[in-house]
Specification:
The complex is a heterodimer of chains A (about 120) and B (about 110). Chain A is mainly β and about 120 residues long. Helices cover about 0% and strands about 60% of the residues of chain A. Chain A is globular, with a radius of gyration of 14 Å. The mean pLDDT of chain A is about 90. Chain B has about 110 residues and is mostly beta strands. In chain B, strands 2, 4, 5, 6, 9, 10 and 11 form a 7-stranded mixed beta sheet that branches. A 4-stranded antiparallel beta sheet of chain B has the order 1-3-8-7, with no helix packed on it. In chain B, strand 5 and strand 6 form a beta hairpin. The radius of gyration of chain B is 13 Å and the shape is globular. Classes of the chains: A mainly beta (about 120), B mainly beta (about 110). Chains A and B meet through strand 5, strand 9 and strand 10 of A and strand 5 of B.
Chain lengths: ~120, ~110
């Protein structure tokens, strides 16, 4: 069975500092991995995804994540935090067969950006 | 495209009442999903559908029902509301391709059961 662990339900960074949000997964088959962002009172929207190919994935708003199979990790980073990055971030893993792939979400990490 | 729309945005129910949460998407996606989001719990799948007329249970289906008569609409029915169903409900949809499971989410319905 697939699962996702997000370390740190709350992370605070100063504006301009590095953002690092951690995600580890378990999966019995090669996974598809996603990061979603949720701004207050909104639905989730996709930041980036890893399916196959290049393990360093670039997403929107300057975020990127690296798939490390040996560490079963998919950490999200951004070199310099901006106030607008304050939101909740969800890591998700997908595996399955046939026409439907179940997606399992982590519990989320709330990012606070301090001016 | 409006994407995924949900109504209502907010609702307060009394214990034992019933209601339907509406969800519509205009992207011609075959797959649609209902999630609930509780603090510190992430998103839990309630029901999903792989096409019109086909639905199946997710992780937490008890107390809910769904139908999918058209590609566009995927309503979620609460028959006998209970306080445990207080949550934020998200509808989502995704394309047919099995290698690309990006989901598009609606803005959510915040439900309180008192």
């Amino acid at each position: 069975a697939q699962s996702v662990t997000q370390l740190g339900s709350h992370v605070s960074v100063s504006e301009g500092a590095l953002v690092l949000l951690r995600c580890n997964y378990s999966s019995s088959v090669p996974p598809y991995l996603f990061w979603y962002v949720q701004y207050p009172n909104q639905g989730l929207q996709l930041l980036l995804k890893y399916t196959t190919g290049a393990t360093l994935v670039k997403g929107i708003n300057g975020f990127e994540a690296e798939f490390k199979k040996s560490e079963t990790s998919f950490h999200l980073t951004k070199p310099s935090a901006h106030m607008s990055d304050a939101a909740e971030y969800f890591c998700a893993v997908s595996e399955g067969s046939g026409g439907y792939q179940k997606v399992t979400f982590g519990i989320g990490t709330k990012l606070q950006v301090i001016p | 495209n409006a994407g995924v729309t949900q109504t209502p945005k907010f609702r307060i129910l009394k214990i034992g009442q019933s209601m339907t949460l509406q969800c519509t998407q205009d992207m011609n996606h075959n797959y649609m999903y209902w999630y609930r989001q509780d603090p510190g719990m992430g998103l839990k799948l309630i029901y999903y559908s792989v096409g019109a007329g086909i639905t199946d249970k997710g992780e937490v289906p008890n107390g809910y029902n769904v139908s999918r008569s058209t590609t566009e609409d995927f309503p979620l029915r609460l028959e006998l509301a209970a306080p445990s169903q207080t949550s934020v409900y998200f509808c989502a949809s995704s394309p047919l391709q099995v290698w690309d499971n990006e989901q598009f989410f609606g803005p959510g319905t915040r439900l309180t059961v008192l």
